């Protein structure tokens, strides 16, 4: 049984309380992590605060040299990290390793981008202040709370932690319960990289038990959260002055506007909808298409869905068990509601506990829950809508606004439609996706607040410090 501990001030914490992590594939314990209490969590913030000024005083290249040892330790242990991840979130081994290597790419790019966070220099001439030269550099905000979701326990954590650290902040990191083994493993990498005491702290414990304590500490200067709308709104509702970046849920639509490359469209839609069993915020979660094109497109989509392998992470199956049985019950409920209201199941609608076959549902209508709710599972609804204007209207009616896809070979039409869709980003002729990670990544409406992406994260975790020279 893997036993990983919380990490505070470079010490592994064992308070005798444990949080068991269940392997979604075996439904048996994958391991356990420390279940911290309030007093432990407050120690993490004290450690982060005490370490921050000295960490920020280091030169950028000194911080990078220390963080590069962390990066090198990731590569050294990449297979073990991938195995732990696959055991605790049922991501197949290939995708788990891909997540680890993608994270190293993010780290390397972050180091380079940090070197180019040049100060802003301005004269006052434009406002009649002739003898004033302003230099505005970006400096650390202080103590950053990073909270990550279960579905990218390594990538979406370090995509916050590394930008925070490289700019001189210190970090308190809360991994998702399902993801805590992967998160706590980062402490071993930090020790291997000779991190200075207190710059990086891992607080483990079930969110519903310790979440309020973690997000209420007065030492927090900024929170970077990725997770569900419900939790994100709980954090937002605290109304503290703390700066927030929230990356929340999604209900990404795919609008299919012509039939000029249906094989490509179907391939993008299926990989976009069913990657990691649909447990991606940017998964395609609804398809809008008119009847005439649907009669040709849907059979092609069905052909692709039927080919998706179903099994275990060790088998590198495309479809693996969803995170837990509570989630699979919710997903099944959406499918059942659609069926009861007249939708047509073309494939799937089959499960063994939390292993759910990819499910393709045609003739979904706006009165069905599946048209609006985020399943976060392997189900794809087709909504047959016979006008582009109606597609845009339904796409925008969602409370979510993360991403969208527009499939259309006429680029003018595609751009004009994209400009009308209320999301952070619209992908033309590809599935919706966060990458490449150097791009800004944002959601609007219930899908988030603020912006991620490498440069945007460096900006959101720093503030201006102005020095004005009068001469
Ligand atoms: P979640 O249940 O909201 O949990 C997210 C994180 O918040 C976890 O670390 C969780 O810890 C923690 N948490 C729970 N209660 C908390 C509280 N009261 N205060 C502070 N933190 C608390 O989301 P998830 O199930 O991990 O991920 C699925 C959701 O996240 C989906 O809606 C998905 O769309 C969204 N998501 C969005 C993005 C994006 O980039 N926009 C990326 C990935 C996922 P515990 O696990 O211990 O509860
Ligand atoms: O749900 C995780 C979100 O960040 C999507 O990432 O790379 O799968 O589009 P990606």
Task: Describe this structure as you would to a colleague.
This protein has 471 residues and is an alpha/beta fold. It has two domains: 2-248 and 447-470, Aldehyde Dehydrogenase, Chain A, domain 1 (3-Layer(aba) Sandwich); 252-437, 3-Layer(aba) Sandwich (Aldehyde Dehydrogenase, Chain A, domain 2), CATH 3.40.309. Helix content is 40%, strand content 24%. It has 14 helices and 25 strands. The strands form seven sheets. It has a seven-stranded mixed sheet, with helices on both faces. Strands 10-9-8-11-12-23 form a six-stranded mixed sheet, with helices on both faces. Strands 1-5-4 form a three-stranded mixed sheet, with helices on one face. Strand 9 (170-174), helix 6 (180-192) and strand 10 form a beta-alpha-beta unit. It is globular and about 70 Å long. The site of NADP nicotinamide-adenine-dinucleotide phosphate (NAP) has 31 residues, from helix 7 and helix 8. It comes from Spiroplasma tabanidicola. This is Glyceraldehyde-3-phosphate dehydrogenase. It holds the Pfam family Aldedh. GO terms for molecular function: lactaldehyde dehydrogenase (NAD+) activity.
CATH homologous superfamily caption of the largest domain: Aldehyde Dehydrogenase, Chain A, domain 1
Overall 3D shape: globular
Named CATH topology of the largest domain: Aldehyde Dehydrogenase, Chain A, domain 1
N-to-C CA distance: 67 Å
List the ions, cofactors and other small molecules found in this model: NADP nicotinamide-adenine-dinucleotide phosphate, SN-glycerol-3-phosphate
Given this structure, which CATH class of the largest domain is correct? Alpha Beta
- What is the count of distinct domains? 2
Mean pLDDT: 97
Query: In percent, how helical is the residue content?
Result: 25-40%
Looking at the overall shape, the CATH architecture of the largest domain is 3-Layer(aba) Sandwich
- Flag low-confidence runs: none
Please state roughly what percent of the residues sit in beta strands, choosing from under 5%, 5-15%, 15-25%, 25-35%, 35-45% or over 45%.
15-25%
Evaluate the radius of gyration. 23 Å
Number of strands: 25
Q: How is the largest sheet built, in terms of strand order?
A: 15-18-19-14-13-20-21
By helix and strand content, what is the structural category? alpha/beta
Helical segment tally?
14
């Amino acid at each position: 049984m893997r036993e990983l501990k919380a990490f505070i001030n470079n010490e592994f914490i064992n308070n005798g309380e444990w949080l068991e992590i269940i392997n979604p594939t075996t439904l048996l314990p994958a391991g356990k992590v420390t279940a911290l209490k309030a007093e432990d969590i407050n120690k993490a913030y004290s450690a982060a605060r005490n370490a921050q000024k000295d960490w920020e005083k280091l030169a950028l290249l000194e911080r990078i040299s220390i963080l590069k040892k962390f990066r090198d330790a990731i590569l050294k242990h990449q297979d073990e990290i991938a195995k732990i991840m696959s055991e605790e979130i049922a991501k197949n081994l290939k995708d788990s390793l891909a997540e680890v290597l993608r994270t190293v790419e993010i780290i390397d790019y972050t180091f380079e981008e940090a070197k180019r966070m040049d100060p802003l220099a301005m004269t006052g001439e434009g406002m009649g202040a002739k003898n004033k030269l302003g230099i505005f550099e970006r400096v650390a905000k202080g103590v950053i709370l990073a909270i990550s979701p279960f579905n990218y326990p390594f990538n979406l954590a370090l995509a916050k932690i590394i930008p925070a650290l490289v700019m001189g902040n210190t970090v308190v990191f809360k991994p998702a319960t399902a993801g805590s083994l992967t998160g706590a493993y980062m402490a071993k990498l930090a020790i291997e990289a000779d991190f200075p005491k207190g710059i990086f702290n891992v607080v483990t414990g079930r969110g519903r038990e310790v979440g309020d304590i973690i997000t209420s500490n007065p030492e927090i200067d900024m929170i970077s959260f990725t997770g569900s709308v419900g939790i994100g709104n709980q954090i937002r509702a605290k109304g503290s002055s703390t700066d927030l970046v929230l990356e929340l849920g999604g209900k990404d639509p795919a609008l299919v506007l012509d039939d000029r490359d249906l094989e490509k469209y179907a391939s993008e839609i299926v990989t976009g909808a069913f990657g990691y069993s649909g447990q991606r915020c940017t998964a395609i979660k609804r398809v809008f298409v008119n009847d005439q094109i649907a009669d040709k497109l849907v059979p092609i989509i069905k052909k692709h869905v039927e080919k998706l392998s179903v099994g275990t992470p060790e088998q590198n199956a495309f479809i693996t068990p969803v995170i837990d049985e509570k989630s699979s019950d919710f997903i099944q409920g959406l499918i059942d509601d659609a069926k009861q209201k007249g939708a047509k199941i073309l494939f799937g609608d089959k499960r063994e506990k939390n292993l759910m076959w990819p499910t393709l549902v045609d003739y979904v209508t706006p009165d069905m829950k599946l048209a609006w709710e985020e399943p976060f599972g392997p189900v794809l609804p087709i909504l047959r809508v016979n006008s582009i204007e109606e597609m845009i209207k339904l796409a925008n009616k969602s409370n979510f606004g993360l991403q969208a896809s527009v499939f259309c070979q006429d680029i003018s039409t595609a751009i004009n439609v994209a400009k009308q869709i209320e999301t952070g980003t619209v992908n033309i002729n590809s599935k919706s996706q966060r990458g490449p990670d150097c791009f800004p990544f944002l959601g609007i409406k219930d899908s988030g607040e603020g912006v991620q992406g490498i440069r945007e994260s460096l900006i959101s975790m720093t503030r201006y410090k102005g020095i004005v020279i009068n001469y």
